[in-house]
Amino acid sequence: MSSFNGPGLYIHVPFCRRICPYCDFSVLTGDRSWQSRYVRHLLLEIDLSTGSGWPDLIHEPPRQPFDTIYFGGGTPSMLRPEDLGTILAALRDQLPVRDDAWLFLEANPEDVTLEAATTWRQMGFRTISLGVQSFAEQHLSFLGRQHTPRTARQSLDNAISAGFDTVAMDLIYGLPGQTPTDWRRDLDAALAAQPHHLSCYQLTVHPRTPFGFRRQRGELAEMENDEQAELFLMTHRLLEEGGLPGYEVSSFAAGPEHHSLHNQKYWTHTPYLGLGPSAHSFAQRRRWWNPRKIKAWMAPLAEGRSPIESGEELGLQSLVLESLMLGLRTYAGVDFDTLPGGTGQRLWEENEATIDRLVERGLATAERSCLRPTLRGLAIADTVARSLDLDCLREESP
Length: 398
Ligand code: SF4
Fold this sequence. Notes:
By secondary structure, the chain is an alpha/beta fold. It has 16 helices and 15 strands.
């Protein structure tokens, strides 16, 4: 698994049958003709990306090829297999992609018939990630999901029967009024379905979404922080006991071979190229992104121009802060010796007193150059990262 340390490719597929009331992604309910237009423009973007100069940035020496391709969204499983095949062929033809690149597909349970799952598996997808969200009828309905608990279970069975290397599923918790018993039932149902990987996300209410508007009108009360924290700790403990130990704040897997090779690139600042509306890319110290709206993404492509909307160059201080935040969200923690710009030793020395306090308060353990969060530290990873003083790096930021 560790040999998958080259850059990653992310393809954003922006279609969903219905927009969930909590969704903050770039999505639309497009019909077949929209999907065809999307595929045509994505092929243009793939074509253009080879001449844009970005590949040089991503493939700086030793110029490793892409070794993961992640179809996310949106609902990539809504695309016809022919469309997925066309996109994959274009990526392999025009970009440096390793022959054994690990292919990921996000899918909605309604789409995962045994026939569809078998087709995707035959196309080379190795991980399928199912947006189950809950096994409770009332919670699925609150979240605006169309599938039933029964469909969710059936889709998992189909994915397992189709022989994916990793069958993953997502759940959401921290819903208004959800009790620890409710959530425990969901976790038990998830464990009974025996996925290889589970992601458990706390519900976030974003402004400018139907849930955000309901909160503004006082019709939706979010779960209190201490209740959320209780569910968080319970999740990590129960899943560990159930054979799916955590390795990141929201990620649990039956073994290291099922850890998300693609997400690990985001957590370690490994370069990645994102294509499609709203897709973000990162290489060296540079981050850039496409417009969120599909029309704003398509318009420049139709004129033969790059759709990149904007970008930023991260200063050393921001880059190190991000590395600390991302690292402290993982069980492995942060090895200061690997921090960008060779800054780790100085940073550790400057923060020795803070690190000692984190250890005394039971939020982290420190060993040589490694700072690892405890479960309690993981629950407040960003706060732990921000407690470190990065002022000594300020003068080196551009
Ligand atoms: S299925 Fe996912 S991407 Fe689609 S609307 Fe719902 S939350 Fe958003």
